[in-house]
Amino acid sequence: MIVLSLVWGILAIVGMLVAFLPCLGWMNWFNIPFSGVGLIVSIIALASSKQPNKGGAVGGVILCGIAVVFGIIRLVAGGGVL
What we know:
Layout: H1 2-19, H2 28-48, H3 55-77
């Protein structure tokens, strides 16, 4: 589950970067929920892991959190949320 959270975070960041391109800001409407679910999965992986190495889960939390925050900022700045 730790690897899943890290991969999910990487996909969320890639989606966020693609949504920053002009005319592709609408992708944030799909990327924000995707990143939110990834954030929940990463937090569950972080809390339930008994391994001493939890870097993947921490990375997933950070990457998904960044994708959610910057996606919302992009929607507000681009007029996608009124």
